[in-house]
Amino acid sequence: MEVWGRVGAQVCEVATALHDKSKRALIGDGTYHGFVTAALKEVPNAASISPESYGYLIYQQSGGAVQKRASDILPGDVLWMQDAKLKGHKGIHSYQQSVGVGDPLVGIVNEFEAKKFKVRIFQANQHVGQQTVESVSYRLEDLKSGLVKVSSCHNFSFFPYSSFLEGVPYIGSLKEWLMQI
């Protein structure tokens, strides 16, 4: 967890710096994937990514049903949304929002409020003429349809498995999972 926290914190710091820099220059190629790629290549221990995989899947939700929750959502994780329709309330007003229609939305988690189940991410701004990075929040409990995935971009391949896993209590399933990587 200690090394994972450092990598996640580094990814979040790089994303914050790119958010500030985006007001003056284009980040990556201006796409969601381009921004995430630009942020992760600045962090030495981050896992290599592709448009199909942004690391190790730690959370998956389809519609209103959570299908997988292997870990808490932390800053520096990568959020991916496809054909997501959100409907809920912000204050006294109701809202409806569709994201990731056509191309999936991809961003880097900046903050997660577990009590409200709200995630704040940095994502590329896809509005015409405004290719910057923006900070946007989504309430995952407001998801009515579509798919949300959160992946950890931590690269486990540099751990010396035997020394990392020895002496850790109740590690059976985690040890098996790490050996499959």
Automatic annotation (TrEMBL):
It comes from the Eukaryota. Residues 2-150 form the BBC1/AIM3 cysteine proteinase-fold domain. InterPro entries: AIM3_BBC1_C. This is BBC1/AIM3 cysteine proteinase-fold domain-containing protein. It comes from Dendrothele bispora (strain CBS 962.96).
